[in-house]
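Long-time lurker. I teach an intro course on protein structure, and each term I like to show students one example going from raw sequence to a predicted 3D structure in token notation. This year I'd like something fresh instead of my usual example. Would anyone be willing to generate the tokens for the chain below so I can use it in lecture? Attribution to the forum is fine with me.
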Amino acid sequence: MPDHITQSVERQLPTDEARDLLSLVRDIAQREIVPKAAEEEDAGRFPRELFTLLSESGLLGLPYDSEFGGGDQPYEVYLQVLEELAAARLTVGLGVSVHSLSCHALAGYGTKEQRKDHLPAMLGGGLLGAYCLSEPAAGSDAASLRTKAVRDGDDWVISGTKAWITHGGVADFYTVLARTGADGARGITAFLVPGDAEGLSAAMPEKKMGMKGSPTAQINFDGVRIPDSRRLGDEGQGFAIALSALDSGRLGIAACAIGVAQAALDEAVGYATERRQFGRPIADFQGLRFMLADMATQIEAGRALYLSAARLRDAGRPFAKQAAMAKLLCTDAAMKVTTDAVQVLGGYGYTADFPVERLMREAKVLQIVEGTNQIQRMVIARHLAGPDSR
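-- Reply from a regular --
Happy to contribute to a lecture. Here you go:
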């Protein structure tokens, strides 16, 4: 059974431009993404041509300034675009989120000259980005990263290994966090490294449970030399830049999670209204009807939470706590909804003939990336009760 999008979501969008934008996204999803999603995920094929199309359509720079090629869209709109893309194929939705994350340091902390030199190509010139924070021994404890950048005249020389890098090996540029000073968060600096830099290489992509079409790989920096003009922000400011990016990135993951959950619900409702047992559609049975109602309620709650956090961000107000809450609730909901969707379809749900088994496998990673859900609980608790006293 092919994937489908029912477009069952009634969106509240702030402008006619935003409504036209969502219509464009849905059209691209229906024509270019959905028909190939299952086949290409099964084959582990990364759809680079889709990202070129999205760039040409102005969809890779939506939340950034139009002065540098962005779309001037509020996060409230951008996140709903991500949701639509993720509902069609998570490799695409999450890929756009990661690309936006990789542009954050330059857009928010780069000099006017740096932004003028690099952002137009990054936001609308067909380039694809990756974000290099995690390392083999520094995941949740990102402040303990060991990749080093050593000053050599007007250059920096970067050495070390980054891990779990989405778009690793296919990205055109990497936003890299490296140690330039003492141990701890204050000794980290951000850099913009071109994907073809000498000494930069990618390991073989990881073999994953889901999102097989999205390459995830270690990136090795073997004496990669870049000029100081590619340092982003001040020396030692990198960890603060990274945390700022992750606050926004977590909202992207939340939106992607709701997209995956919505796709699973749509499949479950479609199946339940068509599948007949005991002489009537299985959607007539109260136990199953209650499952569908709970799934829909979790999705609506998650969507409302991520949009509320986005509106805080758009208003220039603090939103870190709400971003962590949205990431936590939305990704847990996606895992529950996709699991229940498999149950609704029964034995068919466990086969690759229906998309819900793929959606269930993909939902799991969203509880892990950009801060595990255990880390989100720590972030939320810190906002409520202050730092751990230990």
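Some talking points for your students: The chain has a mean pLDDT of 95. The radius of gyration is 21 Å.
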